[in-house]
Design goal:
single chain; alpha/beta; five-stranded mixed sheet; three-stranded parallel sheet; 8 strands; binds manganese (II) ion
Protein backbone atom coordinates (compact mmCIF):
# COMPACT_ATOMS: atom_id res chain seq x y z
CA UNK A 1 0.00 0.00 0.00
CA UNK A 2 1.40 3.36 -0.93
CA UNK A 3 1.44 5.77 1.95
CA UNK A 4 -0.33 9.08 1.74
CA UNK A 5 2.13 11.91 1.39
CA UNK A 6 1.31 14.02 4.42
CA UNK A 7 3.12 16.89 6.12
CA UNK A 8 1.50 17.93 9.39
CA UNK A 9 4.08 20.25 10.94
CA UNK A 10 5.46 23.47 9.42
CA UNK A 11 5.84 27.19 10.05
CA UNK A 12 4.97 30.28 8.03
CA UNK A 13 5.97 33.90 8.54
CA UNK A 14 3.00 34.17 10.91
CA UNK A 15 5.43 32.67 13.45
CA UNK A 16 9.13 31.97 12.86
CA UNK A 17 9.00 30.64 9.30
CA UNK A 18 10.24 32.50 6.23
CA UNK A 19 7.44 31.87 3.71
CA UNK A 20 3.86 33.09 3.59
CA UNK A 21 1.09 30.53 4.15
CA UNK A 22 0.31 30.61 0.39
CA UNK A 23 3.95 30.07 -0.55
CA UNK A 24 4.12 27.09 1.80
CA UNK A 25 1.07 25.49 0.20
CA UNK A 26 2.49 26.03 -3.30
CA UNK A 27 5.87 24.60 -2.34
CA UNK A 28 4.27 21.59 -0.66
CA UNK A 29 2.13 20.94 -3.74
CA UNK A 30 5.24 21.06 -5.95
CA UNK A 31 6.85 18.54 -3.62
CA UNK A 32 3.93 16.15 -4.01
CA UNK A 33 2.29 16.64 -0.62
CA UNK A 34 -1.34 15.45 -0.55
CA UNK A 35 -2.45 16.34 3.00
CA UNK A 36 -1.10 19.33 4.87
CA UNK A 37 -1.38 21.22 8.16
CA UNK A 38 0.13 24.63 8.90
CA UNK A 39 1.27 24.64 12.54
CA UNK A 40 2.60 28.06 13.50
CA UNK A 41 3.79 28.65 17.06
CA UNK A 42 0.84 29.68 19.23
CA UNK A 43 -1.08 31.38 16.43
CA UNK A 44 -3.77 30.48 13.94
CA UNK A 45 -3.32 33.73 11.99
CA UNK A 46 -2.17 31.98 8.80
CA UNK A 47 -4.83 29.28 8.63
CA UNK A 48 -7.40 31.12 6.54
CA UNK A 49 -4.91 32.12 3.85
CA UNK A 50 -3.38 28.63 3.85
CA UNK A 51 -6.77 26.92 3.57
CA UNK A 52 -7.81 29.14 0.67
CA UNK A 53 -4.59 28.48 -1.22
CA UNK A 54 -4.75 24.73 -0.46
CA UNK A 55 -8.27 24.59 -1.88
CA UNK A 56 -7.11 26.33 -5.05
CA UNK A 57 -4.32 23.78 -5.37
CA UNK A 58 -6.60 20.83 -4.59
CA UNK A 59 -4.50 19.98 -1.55
CA UNK A 60 -6.23 18.49 1.52
CA UNK A 61 -5.88 20.90 4.41
CA UNK A 62 -6.26 20.46 8.16
CA UNK A 63 -6.14 23.26 10.76
CA UNK A 64 -2.97 23.20 12.85
CA UNK A 65 -1.04 25.02 15.56
CA UNK A 66 2.10 24.26 17.62
CA UNK A 67 1.51 25.15 21.26
CA UNK A 68 4.20 25.73 23.85
CA UNK A 69 3.68 24.03 27.20
CA UNK A 70 5.68 22.62 30.06
CA UNK A 71 5.88 19.19 31.61
CA UNK A 72 7.42 19.80 35.00
CA UNK A 73 10.47 21.87 34.17
CA UNK A 74 10.72 20.65 30.60
CA UNK A 75 9.40 22.64 27.66
CA UNK A 76 7.14 20.46 25.51
CA UNK A 77 5.42 21.29 22.22
CA UNK A 78 1.89 20.13 21.49
CA UNK A 79 0.63 20.19 17.92
CA UNK A 80 -3.12 20.68 17.66
CA UNK A 81 -4.74 19.32 14.48
CA UNK A 82 -8.22 19.48 13.01
CA UNK A 83 -9.61 21.76 15.74
CA UNK A 84 -12.29 24.42 15.40
CA UNK A 85 -10.22 27.60 15.17
CA UNK A 86 -13.14 29.72 16.38
CA UNK A 87 -13.84 27.63 19.49
CA UNK A 88 -13.70 29.69 22.73
CA UNK A 89 -11.32 27.16 24.37
CA UNK A 90 -8.80 27.65 21.53
CA UNK A 91 -9.28 31.42 21.34
CA UNK A 92 -8.74 31.78 25.11
CA UNK A 93 -5.68 29.55 25.08
CA UNK A 94 -4.09 31.49 22.21
CA UNK A 95 -4.87 34.80 23.93
CA UNK A 96 -3.11 33.61 27.10
CA UNK A 97 -0.18 32.24 25.08
CA UNK A 98 0.15 35.66 23.44
CA UNK A 99 0.18 37.42 26.81
CA UNK A 100 2.85 35.01 28.06
CA UNK A 101 4.96 35.64 24.99
CA UNK A 102 4.66 39.45 25.35
CA UNK A 103 5.55 39.27 29.02
CA UNK A 104 8.59 37.10 28.25
CA UNK A 105 9.67 39.50 25.51
CA UNK A 106 9.51 42.45 27.90
CA UNK A 107 11.71 40.51 30.32
CA UNK A 108 14.18 39.64 27.55
CA UNK A 109 14.31 43.31 26.56
CA UNK A 110 15.09 44.30 30.15
CA UNK A 111 17.91 41.71 30.30
CA UNK A 112 19.32 42.86 26.98
CA UNK A 113 19.22 46.51 28.09
CA UNK A 114 21.62 45.54 30.88
CA UNK A 115 24.23 44.48 28.33
CA UNK A 116 23.73 47.67 26.32
CA UNK A 117 21.28 46.53 23.66
CA UNK A 118 18.81 49.35 23.09
CA UNK A 119 15.20 49.13 21.90
CA UNK A 120 15.44 45.37 21.47
CA UNK A 121 11.70 44.63 21.64
CA UNK A 122 10.75 47.21 19.01
CA UNK A 123 13.59 46.21 16.70
CA UNK A 124 12.82 42.50 17.09
CA UNK A 125 9.12 43.18 16.43
CA UNK A 126 10.02 44.96 13.23
CA UNK A 127 12.16 42.02 12.10
CA UNK A 128 9.35 39.62 12.96
CA UNK A 129 6.61 41.71 11.39
CA UNK A 130 4.66 40.97 14.58
CA UNK A 131 5.33 39.41 17.96
CA UNK A 132 9.01 38.38 17.95
CA UNK A 133 10.60 35.18 19.20
CA UNK A 134 14.12 34.51 20.43
CA UNK A 135 15.57 34.17 16.90
CA UNK A 136 14.53 37.78 16.25
CA UNK A 137 16.21 39.00 19.44
CA UNK A 138 19.27 37.07 18.34
CA UNK A 139 19.20 38.98 15.06
CA UNK A 140 19.00 42.26 16.99
CA UNK A 141 22.17 41.28 18.89
CA UNK A 142 23.88 40.71 15.54
CA UNK A 143 22.63 44.02 14.09
CA UNK A 144 23.76 45.95 17.15
CA UNK A 145 27.19 44.37 16.86
CA UNK A 146 27.11 42.37 20.10
CA UNK A 147 27.80 39.07 18.35
CA UNK A 148 28.90 38.10 14.83
CA UNK A 149 26.01 35.71 14.18
CA UNK A 150 22.73 34.32 15.48
CA UNK A 151 24.31 31.08 16.72
CA UNK A 152 26.70 33.09 18.89
CA UNK A 153 23.75 35.15 20.22
CA UNK A 154 22.15 31.99 21.58
CA UNK A 155 25.42 30.56 22.82
CA UNK A 156 26.39 33.69 24.73
CA UNK A 157 23.11 35.32 25.77
CA UNK A 158 19.77 33.83 24.75
CA UNK A 159 20.22 30.07 25.03
CA UNK A 160 18.98 27.99 27.97
CA UNK A 161 20.64 29.09 31.19
CA UNK A 162 22.42 32.11 29.64
CA UNK A 163 22.15 35.61 31.09
CA UNK A 164 19.31 36.84 28.85
CA UNK A 165 17.31 33.62 28.86
CA UNK A 166 13.89 33.83 30.49
CA UNK A 167 12.86 30.55 32.06
CA UNK A 168 9.79 28.63 31.07
CA UNK A 169 6.61 30.61 31.17
CA UNK A 170 4.24 28.17 29.53
CA UNK A 171 1.15 26.45 30.93
CA UNK A 172 1.17 22.79 32.01
CA UNK A 173 1.02 20.29 29.15
CA UNK A 174 -2.28 18.81 30.37
CA UNK A 175 -3.97 22.22 30.23
CA UNK A 176 -2.89 22.71 26.61
CA UNK A 177 -3.95 19.19 25.58
CA UNK A 178 -7.34 19.73 27.20
CA UNK A 179 -7.90 23.00 25.30
CA UNK A 180 -7.15 21.30 21.97
CA UNK A 181 -9.55 18.46 22.81
CA UNK A 182 -12.23 20.94 23.95
CA UNK A 183 -11.93 22.64 20.55
CA UNK A 184 -12.65 19.26 18.87
CA UNK A 185 -9.03 18.83 17.83
CA UNK A 186 -6.47 16.07 18.07
CA UNK A 187 -3.52 16.77 20.38
CA UNK A 188 -0.22 15.46 19.04
CA UNK A 189 3.01 15.32 21.03
CA UNK A 190 5.55 17.09 18.82
CA UNK A 191 9.06 15.66 18.21
CA UNK A 192 9.20 13.42 21.32
CA UNK A 193 12.83 12.48 20.67
CA UNK A 194 14.01 16.08 20.87
CA UNK A 195 13.48 16.75 24.56
CA UNK A 196 16.67 14.99 25.57
CA UNK A 197 14.81 12.55 27.84
CA UNK A 198 15.87 9.10 28.95
CA UNK A 199 13.60 6.27 27.81
CA UNK A 200 12.08 6.10 31.29
CA UNK A 201 11.30 9.82 31.37
CA UNK A 202 9.97 9.73 27.82
CA UNK A 203 7.59 6.89 28.76
CA UNK A 204 6.39 8.97 31.73
CA UNK A 205 5.87 12.01 29.49
CA UNK A 206 3.91 10.04 26.90
CA UNK A 207 1.87 8.38 29.66
CA UNK A 208 0.90 11.77 31.11
CA UNK A 209 0.18 13.09 27.62
CA UNK A 210 -2.17 10.18 26.89
CA UNK A 211 -3.89 10.53 30.28
CA UNK A 212 -4.56 14.20 29.57
CA UNK A 213 -6.37 13.27 26.33
CA UNK A 214 -3.51 13.33 23.83
CA UNK A 215 -4.20 11.03 20.88
CA UNK A 216 -1.09 10.95 18.68
CA UNK A 217 2.68 11.41 18.67
CA UNK A 218 5.02 12.47 15.89
CA UNK A 219 7.05 9.44 14.90
CA UNK A 220 8.93 11.43 12.31
CA UNK A 221 10.02 15.05 12.73
CA UNK A 222 12.27 16.57 10.12
CA UNK A 223 15.52 14.70 9.65
CA UNK A 224 16.16 12.24 12.39
CA UNK A 225 18.55 9.35 12.97
CA UNK A 226 17.38 6.00 11.63
CA UNK A 227 15.57 3.89 14.21
CA UNK A 228 13.92 6.81 15.99
CA UNK A 229 10.53 6.32 14.31
CA UNK A 230 10.57 2.57 15.00
CA UNK A 231 11.48 3.15 18.63
CA UNK A 232 8.72 5.76 19.06
CA UNK A 233 6.27 3.42 17.31
CA UNK A 234 6.66 0.98 20.21
CA UNK A 235 5.61 3.72 22.64
CA UNK A 236 2.69 4.76 20.41
CA UNK A 237 1.46 1.20 20.41
CA UNK A 238 1.97 0.80 24.18
CA UNK A 239 -0.19 3.88 24.87
CA UNK A 240 -2.61 3.25 22.00
CA UNK A 241 -1.69 6.50 20.23
CA UNK A 242 -1.91 7.37 16.56
CA UNK A 243 1.16 8.27 14.51
CA UNK A 244 1.81 11.68 12.98
CA UNK A 245 4.69 13.18 11.05
CA UNK A 246 5.94 16.46 9.68
CA UNK A 247 8.92 18.26 8.26
CA UNK A 248 8.92 21.09 10.86
CA UNK A 249 9.90 23.19 7.85
CA UNK A 250 10.87 26.81 8.66
CA UNK A 251 12.73 28.13 5.62
CA UNK A 252 14.10 27.06 2.24
CA UNK A 253 17.69 25.97 2.05
CA UNK A 254 18.08 25.03 5.70
CA UNK A 255 19.90 21.78 6.27
CA UNK A 256 16.83 20.54 8.06
CA UNK A 257 13.97 19.08 6.13
CA UNK A 258 12.19 20.03 2.94
CA UNK A 259 8.39 20.27 2.94
CA UNK A 260 6.91 16.85 2.42
CA UNK A 261 10.28 15.24 3.00
CA UNK A 262 9.31 13.24 6.05
CA UNK A 263 6.80 10.74 4.75
CA UNK A 264 7.64 7.27 5.90
CA UNK A 265 5.82 5.78 8.89
CA UNK A 266 6.97 2.43 10.26
CA UNK A 267 4.77 -0.58 9.50
CA UNK A 268 1.92 -1.42 11.83
CA UNK A 269 1.14 2.07 13.15
CA UNK A 270 -2.20 3.87 12.84
CA UNK A 271 -1.79 7.16 10.95
CA UNK A 272 -3.49 10.15 12.57
CA UNK A 273 -4.74 11.36 9.17
CA UNK A 274 -7.06 8.39 8.66
CA UNK A 275 -9.69 10.55 10.33
CA UNK A 276 -9.39 13.27 7.66
CA UNK A 277 -8.43 11.43 4.50
MN1 LIG B 1 10.11 27.38 15.28
MN1 LIG C 1 8.68 22.44 18.22
MN1 LIG D 1 7.76 23.38 14.87
Amino acid sequence: MTQLRADLHMHSHCSDGALSPSQLMQRAKENGVELIALTDHDTTAGLEEARREAETLNLSFVNGVELSSRWGKIGVHIVGLGFDAGHPAMLELLERQGERRRSRNQQIEAKLAKIGVVNAYAQASELAGGEPGRPHFAQVLVEQGKVPDVARAFKKYLGAGKSCDIKLIWPPMAEVVEAVVAASGVAVLAHPAKYGLTRTKLRALIGDFASAGGEAIELVSGMQPSGVAESLALLASEFNLDASLGSDFHKPGAAWQELGGATHLPAGVRAVWQRWH
